[in-house]
Design a protein that fits this description.
Two copies of one chain form a homodimer. The first copy, chain A, is 37% helix and 17% strand. The first copy, chain A, has 531 residues and is of the alpha/beta class. The radius of gyration of chain A is 25 Å and the shape is globular.
């Protein structure tokens, strides 16, 4: 399949502008085929105008029709076959097997949202029937449900070229809510974006969707991305990436004449607490699990465990030595881009140069001259240093973790209190540990989006009970998850219908409950019709 | 009951600062008893520190304990007796009967939230149980529920000294979620605030709540209010008031190092469409209803119908003349403050001076010299003028409405499309009208928080199916209602628990379902326990 590098605007293609860029293979430094055109402002306007029209047209599509579109997108992504896997590998340095997995997850996400809207109860229908004889005032008939917010901008993530990019979780959840989506491609994997975009274009045509349900634009974040978030037609944005990038979009959106929400999932160091008994019982297993979690995707996961919190003692020294050895023995793999690699190396060296931070197991670290290959590592510091040096709380994006060794239980709680906004926290503890450290659970729950006992934070289950979010700076809005069915709430809002005759109500709110939804009727959950 | 004008900080009182202000009776211009102290920054810090401690302490209180507190607040407000009613009347010029009603609504709101948390299903518990044998990866046990966000700042509203002030809807919903509240009193009714604050202080002591669950501060919005929204301990704010005030808070909150949500309900002109057949059949009734709705609370309701949209014709001329007469005959009542009255008079005169806007039924309007008394009025313009002059879409806070007369159905749709963010829209139409104008319903639904067929937007039903919100500038965040049980969602966020042993889970997520909640378990709604 030949790439053209043109914008996808509804059912059309467009390459109006003079500027282009190419993708680079981070393992070789070679330019990959196809020049990609920066979107012009008139191309962006056209995509937005089509999205605005599609927002109205989508209101007339049934949930089944929208679900069929989601399923068709998944089918067309699978139809891309190996071309997609190969291009994604070439653009990212990540292994092909990883993309087979990520493609499966992406299609499953689309299917999950298709099921969600087929079942339909996500609209949170609430009905309170009239009490015309109530005194002093009659009670009106009042009915509430969630409806789509409007056109949504989605920014592709560097680290999930499929599952958090063109047809990823943000896009799938926005479509499921009934919102058209304009995607801004990531400069690191524009070819992957184009392939998926073409699959979507086909699916939209085949399922008779309004063409503006999807457009794909190329261009720099600071111009194309900013213009998109400032466009009056756009009503929300989804982003996964750096704190700097997410915050810039958030600030621009908040400064609009009519502000819009930017759901940015940004930065997290995902502390892992290893409590004394668990360490005694499971040190080997925890070390092996940590190595796997820290190096997964070359440490380029949002949920990569960046900090270990432990009590000092001989078992801790042995455990850290063992973990350091496992990381030392791990392969040096290519990171997503030269820029990400450079940032990793700079952060690594900054840590290494800190007086009170030790790099375990290495004498001196040699980064290879080519291939943007990360060296996995374990650093160690003490609690006092961690508490005093705010830089140690910054995310270092890559396969590195920092062990913070505490001299007492009280110091461990002080370290815990320093965390303010994380996607996850993990506690490794026996039942006795959990009892002895019972206050640690609510303390960390208040600071994170997800609390794990045992296991590792990487590998985010896509389901109805997931929360991938958390207080700032993990996310710009801790009310929402970007993974799992709850993600649809970001792109919908409640609308109340008062005394609207049954025939003019959306089906979700009609007396007969033709969609068979779970609804809150006069205070009770039921699937019955309203008498 | 003697007022002291001191801050209420937890169970203490404080008056550290040198600056004071007094309340003014807007009907007489007289200063009312008691000098109120502007909060100092150390007082604000103390209130915040207590709230932070209370946030942790509240986690250990059961929903029943928190519900008992809400009920007790209502009881203590009733125990204030006539002193509260008289002071609120003196501070606002609104009749005592109005405050008997508003007090009832305030206590009912507290009771509604007490019932909501006693029942408990609002936490939206979701459980997906483990599948250890799933391939390629085992599925973990994942459980989700909503938990309190943190300390909340609430700003008293000028127009609802009880129901949207110290113990109003914002405060009740934040407490219900488990959040401590720091209230910033409104300068127009500080005595009402103190009385309610004292009732809350008593209730907190009687029900053994952590003292930081409530504080009340006095001071200017641009200093005390801003400092509160910028305080790192504060995690969200609720506001009802002007667009300027709400936006200033929103901007300050968005610019924080860690941004927080400001739920500001601000500005709305609440269009009422009167369709042809309804006008023929019900002109007299609609005119009478409109008069009542427009003049309710001297037009100082967020949902006051500020615009009528109609087709031109002889029936329209007769209807408007009749409505103008009814408004002309209405009493001239005292507005909440001299400032609000001055803004009303200035806006009124600005409208009156517009070439293409007619003041119906008046030759010249005389505002009385004293008493800040509003003159209710009906203005008329044509659709072309309304579409061209953006000032005509500005809210004029007071008992005035503007009839926009359209020469065609198409022009009516153009007017409809001009609305971008309203709390409400109302359609008066027969069944035949609604069929003929079927596209008007979704068009307006996309622009408002609540859509009414018949009736009037004032009188917001406090229930599970209400939405008092809408796209900007009606609100800063259209995802949430500030009236009804949904308001609790603003002050809570999801937290996911992964592989947490049953004994360490919050009761809402335990297998046995000890609280008897409706939960989403493996995709199905149920109150059963998990096997």
């Amino acid at each position: 399949m030949d790439l053209t590098g043109q914008q996808i605007i509804g059912q059309g293609r467009s390459a109006e502008g003079p500027e282009t860029f190419t993708a680079t293979n981070p393992a070789t430094g070679d330019a990959l085929p196809a020049a990609f055109y920066h979107a012009t402002s008139s191309e962006l306007d056209r995509a937005c105008a089509l999205a605005d029209a599609a927002y109205v047209a989508l209101e007339k599509k049934t949930p089944e029709e929208r679900a069929a579109f989601l399923d068709k997108v998944a089918e067309e992504i699978m139809n891309l076959g190996d071309a997609l896997i190969v291009r994604a590998h070439d653009e990212t340095g990540l292994p092909e097997a990883r993309f087979q997995g990520e493609r499966g997850r992406t299609c499953n996400q689309l299917g999950l949202f298709a099921s969600l809207i087929r079942e339909g109860s996500w609209v949170d229908a609430r009905i309170e029937t009239a009490l015309p004889d109530r005194t002093p005032f009659p009670k009106p008939d009042v009915r509430l449900m969630r409806r789509p917010l409007g056109p949504v901008a989605v920014f592709c993530a560097s680290n999930f070229p499929l599952a958090f990019s063109v047809a990823g979780g943000d896009t799938a959840s926005a479509w499921a809510a009934g919102c058209p989506v304009i995607v801004k491609a990531h400069h690191a994997h524009p070819g992957t974006a184009e392939l998926v975009g073409l699959a979507i274009q086909k699916a939209a045509a085949a399922t008779n969707m309004p063409e503006g349900i999807f457009s794909l634009l190329y261009g720099p974040g600071r111009s194309t991305g900013m213009d998109l978030v400032k466009h009056p037609i756009v009503k929300a944005a989804g982003f996964t990436g750096s704190q700097q990038g997410g915050r810039a979009l958030f600030d621009a959106a908040a400064a609009r004449p009519a502000p819009i929400p930017v759901y940015a999932e940004m930065s997290s160091i995902n502390p892992v607490f290893i409590l004394p008994e668990a360490l005694k019982e499971d040190a080997g297993q925890i070390a092996a699990g940590l190595r796997q979690s820290v190096t997964l995707g070359v440490g380029q996961f949002c949920t990569c465990p960046g900090v270990l919190v432990m009590l000092s003692g001989p078992e801790t020294d042995v455990f850290l030595a063992q973990t350091a050895t496992l990381l030392l023995e791990s392969s040096h793999d290519t990171m997503l881009t030269a820029g990400i690699f450079d940032a990793y190396r700079a952060g690594f060296e900054k840590l290494d140069n800190k007086e009170a931070v030790d790099l375990l197991g290495h004498d001196a670290v040699q980064f290879e001259a080519t291939g943007n290959r990360a060296v996995p590592a374990l650093f160690r510091t003490d609690a006092a240093t961690f508490l005093a040096d705010n830089e140690l709380s910054d995310e270092l994006f890559g396969p590195t973790t920092l062990a913070v060794v505490c001299s007492s239980r009280a110091e461990m709680f002080s370290v815990a209190r320093k965390f303010r906004g994380e996607l996850t926290a993990t506690l490794h503890g026996s039942q006795a540990d959990l009892k002895a450290y019972a206050d640690l659970l609510p303390l960390m729950a208040a600071r994170v989006g997800r609390l794990l006992v045992g296991g590792y934070p990487t590998g985010v289950e896509v389901c109805s009970a997931m929360n991938h979010g958390g207080p700032y700076p993990a996310c710009t809005d801790s009310h929402y998850t970007s993974v799992g069915t709850g993600a649809i709430l970001r792109f919908s809002r409640p609308i109340c219908f008062q005394n609207v005759p049954d025939a003019f109500l959306p089906s979700a709110l009609q007396n007969g409950n033709p969609d068979g939804l779970w609804r809150l009727v006069n205070g009770g959950m039921t699937r019955d019709s309203v008498q």
